[in-house]
C-alpha cells in the first residue's frame, strides 16, 4: 500500500510467528492472515472477501450504487501489513470496528482509488472491541493450527 493509518476504533493485531518454521512462504502467511480476518468477521455474519491484486479484506456493498462495470461496490474493512526479520513476523492486521471513517478521506488506502473503506459499525453492526477480540481469538487456532 501507499499509506497506513491506525487510529481509535480499529482493532490492531500484531502476529509474531516463526514463518521460517511454517515453510518460508510469505504469500501463504498473508493468505492466512486474510483467512483469519474472514473467519472472525463471519462470526458477525459479515462475508469478507480477498480480491486478486488487492491486499486486505473487502466486503461487498449492495446498499451502494453499482460500479461503472456493473459490479457491486466494495469497501475495505481490514488491512494487512507484515514485516519479516529472520523469518519472524512483525506487524499484522487491522480491522475497522468503529473508526472515524473521515480519517480515511485524505489518503488512498492501499493505492485503491475506486473502492472505499467501511467498518463493522458502518455496516450497522453494534460490535465492540471485546466482541472482535473474542472472534479473533476463537478463529486464530483454526487458521494457524497452533493448538
Q: Can you describe this structure?
A:
The chain has helices at residues 26-42, 129-144; strands at 10-14, 48-51, 54-61, 73-85, 88-96, 116-117. With 147 residues, the chain is of the alpha+beta class. Strands 1, 2, 3, 4, 5 and 6 form a six-stranded mixed beta sheet that branches. α1 packs across α2 (129-144).
Briefly summarize what is shown.
With 147 residues, the protein is an alpha+beta fold.
Compile the SSE list and pairings.
Elements lengths: L9 E5 L11 H17 L5 E4 L2 E8 L11 E13 L2 E9 L19 E2 L11 H16 L3
Parallel strand pairs: 4-6
Antiparallel strand pairs: 1-5, 2-3, 3-4, 4-5
Helix pairs in contact: 1-2
Task: Using brief descriptors, characterize the structure shown.
single chain, 147 residues, alpha+beta, six-stranded mixed β-sheet, 2 helices, 6 strands, globular
- If helices are DSSP runs of H or I spanning 4 or more residues, what is the number of helices? 2
Beta strands, count:
6
Mean pLDDT: 88
Radius of gyration (Å): 15 Å
Order of helices and strands: EHEEEEEH
Helix coverage percent? 10-25%
Major pleated sheet: 6 strands, mixed
Shape: globular
Low-confidence stretches: none
Helix/strand/pairing category: alpha+beta
Percent strand? 25-35%
Distance between the termini: 32 Å
Amino acid at each position: 500500500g501507499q499509506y497506513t493509518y491506525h487510529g481509535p476504533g480499529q482493532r490492531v493485531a500484531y502476529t509474531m510467528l516463526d514463518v521460517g518454521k511454517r515453510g518460508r512462504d510469505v504469500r501463504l502467511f498473508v493468505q492466512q492472515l486474510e483467512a483469519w480476518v474472514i473467519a472472525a468477521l463471519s462470526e458477525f455474519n459479515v462475508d469478507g472477501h480477498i480480491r486478486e491484486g488487492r491486499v486486505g479484506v473487502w466486503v461487498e456493498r449492495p446498499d451502494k450504487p453499482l460500479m461503472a462495470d456493473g459490479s457491486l461496490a466494495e469497501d475495505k474493512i481490514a488491512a494487512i501489513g507484515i514485516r519479516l526479520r529472520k523469518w519472524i513476523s512483525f506487524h499484522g492486521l487491522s480491522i475497522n470496528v468503529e473508526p472515524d471513517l473521515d480519517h480515511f478521506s485524505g489518503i488512498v488506502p492501499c493505492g485503491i482509488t475506486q473502492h472505499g473503506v467501511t467498518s463493522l459499525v458502518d455496516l450497522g453492526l453494534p460490535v465492540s472491541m471485546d466482541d472482535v477480540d473474542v472472534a479473533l481469538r476463537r478463529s486464530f487456532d483454526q487458521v494457524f493450527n497452533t493448538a
